[in-house]
Structure formats: C-alpha cells, structure tokens
Amino acid sequence: MKILRLKSFFTIFFIFFMIVYVSAQKPKSSGARISISEMMWDFGYVSRNGKVIHTYKIKNVGGDTLILAKIRTTCGCTTTPLPKQRLAPGESTDLKVIFDPQKIAAGNTTKKLQIISNDPTNPFMEVQFTAKIGKNSSLIKLTPKEINFDTVSQGTEEQRSLKIENISEEKLSIKMVEGPGDDIDLDLESKILQPGESVQVTLKLKKKAALGDLYTSFTLDFEGSKMARVSIPISAVVANR
C-alpha cells in the first residue's frame, strides 16, 4: 500500500511539474488591449461634393504598450491619418476618417476599416461607416448642401451661413452629433423647428486656422416621429497674406 501511495504521489508531482514547466516555456503574450469609441458610424445623408469626417477614439485599455501597425481601408474614397502609433497603458488617440463621396457611386454605401495592432485578442479590429450619398431627406432642406470658404488669408476671420428648413409636417428637434472641430465656430440659433420653419446656422473660420487645405464637417440629427441624420462638408484653402 505504501509503495502504491508513493507512486501516486510521484505521479501527481510529475504531472504538476510538467504543467508548470510547459507554461513557463510559452511566450508571454502582449498585455496591450485596443478599445474604440464605436464599431459603427453613420454619416447619414451626404452631398456628392465635399469630404465628410468622423473621428474614432482609440484607447489602450491594457497593461502594455499598444502598437497601431496599420489602418487598412476597403476603397480609395477613404483616408485615415493616424497621429500616433504607440499608446501607453491608458493613453488615447484620434483616428480621423476622411470620406470622399465623389469617388464612388451615389446611393447607400457601407465601408470598412481594419485596425491592425499588437492586441493578441483582437489584432485585426474591424469598424464600419455608412452614408446615403447624393440623396435628400424628406424632413429637411439644406441651402447650400456644403460650406466652401474658398481661399482665405491666414489670420482673417471669414463667415458663411447655412439655411436649414423643416419641409416635414411635424416639429423637429435638432441635435449636434459631431462638431466641425477646432478651426470652425458654429452658431446654431434654434434646436426646435416647426413645420415650414427655417433656421440660419452661422459658421466662422477662425483666425488661427493652419495654412493649407482644410477639410472638416459637422453632423446633425433631426428627430420627430421619423429621424434623419445629415453630415455637411466644410472646405477652405488657408493661404499666406
């Protein structure tokens, strides 16, 4: 009996030793973990002209450095400048997606992005965005459909306006979903539109805008018994005086 017990003890000890040994030989996987603000974004109705922009927020929620190796897109209509490729634990960065509707056919579209990183659990994260290109909402009318500041001398403040008209038969609430960024001030006079009512939106290009081509946009939701989302492109060329 003692010999059997001794054999059982050594058998259990050997199995335990092998488990520990094998585990120690396995390469440690990265503790980096990628998190993103949303998996799906909807631009809603967009004009055929001008570029619209959405910013995804990427965060490293793991314990090791997150390395963003590449952003892969499914078409030449989308560009994704990435300001930072290495994120320390808890650090975040912006992934700006610039969508150019002129490069694809009008109608409903869905595009995908693949974020390649060293997250061992999700090395090929996929996100999507949708848009209704060149279509008009039955709820609202925009005049114009895109804002163009043309060529502006740096250091001067230019202003443009947008008319939003409620062409539906019920009141609509207006909600800003995504703003135009740091270079544009936007003044939205009213947040409720009655049937047939219109509102003027004032947009100002700030004096501090950097030299070069400027592309941005803003996204509004209009809601009654039905809902419509619209993204309005903004462009400018900021030049030396």
Overall description:
This protein is mainly β. The chain has two domains: 34-133, Immunoglobulin-like (Sandwich), CATH 2.60.40; 140-239, Immunoglobulin-like. 10% of the residues lie in helices and 53% in strands. The chain has one helix and 18 strands. It has one helix at residues 2-25; strands at residues 34-36, 40-46, 52-60, 66-73, 78-79, 86-87, 92-99, 107-117, 124-133, 140-143, 147-153, 158-166, 172-178, 184-188, 192-193, 198-205, 212-223, 227-239. Strands 2, 4, 6, 8, 9, 11, 13, 15, 17 and 18 form a ten-stranded mixed sheet that branches. It has a four-stranded antiparallel sheet with strand order 1-3-7-5, with no helix packed on it. The longest helix is centred in the N-terminal third of the chain and has 24 residues, at 2-25. The protein is globular and about 55 Å long. Mean pLDDT is 88; it is low at 9-28.
CATH class of the largest domain: Mainly Beta
Number of domains: 2
Name the CATH homologous superfamily of the largest domain.
Immunoglobulins
Largest sheet, strands/sense/barrel: 10 strands, mixed
Q: What is the string of SSEs from the N terminus onward?
A: HEEEEEEEEEEEEEEEEEE
Rough outline: globular
- Estimate the helix proportion, in percent: under 10%
Structural category: mainly beta
Q: Any guess at the CATH architecture of the largest domain? A: Sandwich
**CATH topology term of the largest domain:** Immunoglobulin-like
Output mean pLDDT.
88
Beta-strand portion reads over 45%
Distance between the termini: 99 Å
What does the radius of gyration come to?
26 Å
The beta-strand count equals 18
Low-pLDDT runs = 9-28
Report the total helices: 1
